[in-house]
Amino acid sequence: MRFLSTSIMASTTKLSLSSLPLSKAQFLIPANLNADSAGGKTPSAFINEVLANTPSVQRRSRLMNSDVHFSFVSPFPYSFPYDIRPPEEGSGEALEAERDKASYIEKWLSAREARHPANSDAPLQKMFSQDEKRNSQPRVLLSVSQSCVNDCLPNLDIESQEGKEDLIDILSGKALLTNAEFAPYSLRYSGHQFGTWAGQLGDGRAVSVRASVFVYYTETLLKLLFSCDTWSNPLKQY
What stretch of H or E contains 151? Predict the structure, then answer.
């Protein structure tokens, strides 16, 4: 996840991960860098077009244009290789699948994507799949870093049953969070691997599933960029 400080939150009310305030647009990567057009240029296009019609674009290796910085991507908690079974022989669906295997695979993936909204007035819309297998998978919250929560997200609710369930839903990939400004994404980066320059690599953090304000109390208010494995300009005067 990526958290950026924009202001100190005066309230001490505990909020679920879904209900935490979203970072301001000027701090959101999807609003400031170039998205992969095949994966949707905007969060809305990603949810309503890519996940509905061409979800495989985010499930396979491919080269991107040189000006692309990131791609929207949704968590997909299914074992790979996917168990895509053909339709019952002799059915109309089977004939259609035989004629166009690629379209059948897209439909199979789309039917399992978390692209159906739940009723909510939270800053981000919580999206679920309609696939019962995905929704019924057992999920357990093994541990939470209390010091990380205290330092970075003191308003995050990890104590109540509702707060825990929300955290599990999002971090396990059962649900994803989105609105007009944000959807889960992965960054593109370059580097050396095994002594050779690799021009396009995947995101070492996998998927950024949430962005929120970052709260930090000191004598001087500092603006910090926090990433789970990278610090960039860690101390910047607010």
Answer: helix 146-152
3-state secondary structure at position 178: strand
Residue 119 Ramachandran class (φ > 0 left, ψ -120 to 50 alpha, else beta): beta
C-alpha to C-alpha distance for 72 and 191, rounded to whole angstroms = 21
Are the beta carbons of 63 and 199 closer than 8 angstroms? no
The answer to whether 56 and 211 have CB atoms below 8 angstroms apart is no
In 3D space, the residue among 48, 47, 2 whose CA is nearest the CA of residue 29 turns out to be: 2
- Strand 211-213 versus strand 196-201 pairing type: unpaired
Residue 129 and residue 136 in contact, taking contact as beta carbons nearer than 8 Å? no
Instruction: Report cis status (omega within 30 of 0) of the bond before 81.
Output: yes
For the chain, 238 residues long, the average pLDDT of each consecutive 10-residue run is: 42 83 84 92 95 93 86 91 83 79 93 89 87 90 87 88 93 92 87 77 75 60 37 34
DSSP code, position 48: I
Summarize pLDDT for 31-62 with one digit per residue, the tens. 889 999 999 999 999 999 999 999 999 988 88
Q: CB of 109 within 8 A of CB of 56? A: yes
H or E segment at 49?
A: none
